Amino acid sequence: MKRTIPLLITGIGGFVLILAFFIPYTESWGEVAAVWFDVMAAIAFLLGGGNLMKVHLKKISDRAAGWAYSLIVLLAFLLTLWTGLFKTGSKPADNQEYYGESFASLSVADLPDSMLAEIEGSLPEKVDAELPPSVRRQLSVENGKLRFRGWMTDDHVSDLKSYHETLEWQCKVETLAAAAKPPEVLSGKVSYHSDHQVLSFHGYMSDAEHTALVALGKSAAWSQAVKILFDASRVETRIKSEEIPKGYQLPESVKNVQVSNGELVIQGPMSAALRDQVAAGQATVPFVRPMTKEQRAAFRREIESKGQPLTGEQAVALETTFNTVWTSVQLRLALVTAGQPSEVPKTACEMLIEQQAGVQDIKPKRIVGTAVGINDAQGAVLAKFSTDPSVSIDQAVEQLRAAGEFNDAQEKGLKKFLDRVPNQIDFDKSVATALNGAGPLAEEQKEFLLGDYRKRFLWRRDVGRLFVASHVPKYEWSGDYAEQGTGFWFAYEYAMKPLTATMFAMLAFYVASAAFRAFRAKNIEASLLLGTAFIILLGRTQAGVILTAWFPDAIGGLRIDSLTVYIMSVFNTAGNRAIMIGIALGIASTSLKVLLGMDRSYLGND
Amino acid sequence: MKRDQLIWTVLLVIGGAWLLYRCSTVGVGLVYAQEVDGKFTSVDKLEYTAGTAQIDWLRTLGVWTAAFFTLGIMSFLYKDNPFYKICESVVVGVSAAYWMVLGYWTVVVPNLLGRIWPAWIQSWAMPGISPLREGYWYMNVIPLVFGVMLLWRLAPKGAWIARWPLAFIIGTTAGLRLMGFMQADFLSQIRAGVGPILAINAESGIDFWDTVRNVVMLLSVLACLVYFFFSIEHKGAVGKVAKVGIWVLMITFGAAFGYTVMGRIALLAIRLEFLFNEWLALG
Fold it and tell me: What's the sign of the alpha-carbon dihedral A98, A99, A100, A106?
């Protein structure tokens, strides 16, 4: 019992992994064994921690020599463990928190019948796999009908489509998804998360949306859930804002946010998209256009007028920053790309119709539109637009249309391109960073370049605060245990990392000093080792390369850098290859001895 | 006071005074952080100058702590001392806890608890997983039981109980290593070593130097393998070939030594950069 069963477990564990390598049917066994191995290895770390505590507690209790250091070990261990296991300071994970949504608990059974979509059909035959977990609670088959309770999301559709890869089934899924949609007035506002058994509402609930939601069901559970959502979507959150930008106007589409009297107020939760919309406001900062020589010189004079003249290095840095701005050639290329016909994926039902019509080579995508380029006249318009600030985007589009064919996709492409290029505030910040890195800047110069950046940032910070304040955390513990700012991150970043890195760095001294004492060129072998180490060390330094750089090309192979490459690619590779072959054979024989029970040393003696 | 103690005291006082001076003039080890959506991230000093960041005292304390630990470990170059011993103790405690926490959150929670009790784990730790159990979920009880048996080693009696999970770890390690090394090292190295000896150049036919390179490489591998072959005595021709194998191995060890030293020096440079740039703000 004490020895036979462990021997059996060893053999079975090892041979399952070996079998899994050769027999495809047993591949999943190997995966399971590998996961169990990981679990055991992780638990072994718990054992290690427990053992560490045991040893050091004993040392402290015995007041043995160096017990104070044991106390430090234990304190460091327990503090790190506490902060890591309890995720102290970790914020809920952004991607798990459903920002902008209010939740109300509601089981699938409590969903009203108006949320039941059904189509003729059944599950595909001869599929052994279980239904995907995301739909298992909501999809059923009754009386020859496929029924889905709730509203189908893109994830549901994707999971169900991959359940059986035939066009018939995938078309059925699409048909079911079309039926399982919320009413038009609630489209994009409500969803049901079956994994969490919650009904969710996005943002602020208007009266019309409330009425539509109430009308969907009559049960007490439904009414209660809707009431919770209605109340949550109208909870008012307000924060003080130090820096509301001058002349700031909210976008017209935003109804549930108010900005007044140094306060930001919102009804209901705020989504990330709404946050960005509110932060941007209606006014847009002009994008930066490529500057002419004169414009560059004027900009430089303006900076210098606010303080000291730029140094030589700063002037170079400024020029480099100017050169990072987009060019009309890049814009033209972007518009040519945007003018290419686009590929749109076909639905499964479209492909099914093609299949039934006897089409042999069914393509999953169809091409929409025809290629539209940019002619020379349009190129001239773009060149003028890129340097002339008096030409607005709308005017440029008008001129481009007048100069030749210019489609809507290209117009979108133009706006997208200009959205991505830096605006004046971003550009000024880049200039400040470049100049500050190359030399000193006067306070007034910094203010000139960074003043607007600060105002924009402070406004964005306040909107971010409102975003966080209006959110009710749903999963407090969902954050990363090693997230920046957590206690565990602190222990890793400021204790473990510097300590281990410095310990390894110290080895440089010890290896070098040991080598100095031990290495003697007594024979050929020792000379080869010493000579190679010398060449490699020299070859990895700038000095080594310079030392032999003067060698003529005829003997270029003897330059230190060439010798280093040759040694590494020929002799080092050959030696390591032989060593690796030897190690592999050694491990194979040792492993077989263990698996066959010939080596039982790991079981101990008793 | 002994002479070396006096020297160190004077040096420490001078260093401390200089640090105080730097702290009062440019600020030493200061870290600036910017708040975005309730989270603080480290930024450079320009952001602080621009008025978009503030001094993060916790991170600043972190930089000072890291500087203390770096200097504490380096102090061992002089001799063993209490500062080094404190650092040594901290690294032992923090590393043990680090690996425990890592194993817990990345393996035990998702791969063990999350498979046996998915609804419970989903409700507090991993909202992204499905609360429904997968087929054959009960198989995961085996590693759970093995885990408990492994921890039994900490108990004063019945240490043999831990042999079962230990046997599983040994067995799976042997299986994994056997196949891993045979595939990744043995077969792939032989495959990489077997190739055309003659190097053909599209323009000039046979490339002489590349051919020499291939021949030297092949002969070197074979010579090393002969040296590793201990079933026959290394005498006569075999002995001579084995001798060449030793030479190749010596070159390999020399190269490995050179690389190791350079790697460590690179690490040292990083630590010095930290001390001079991040902590003392001299960069």
Answer: positive
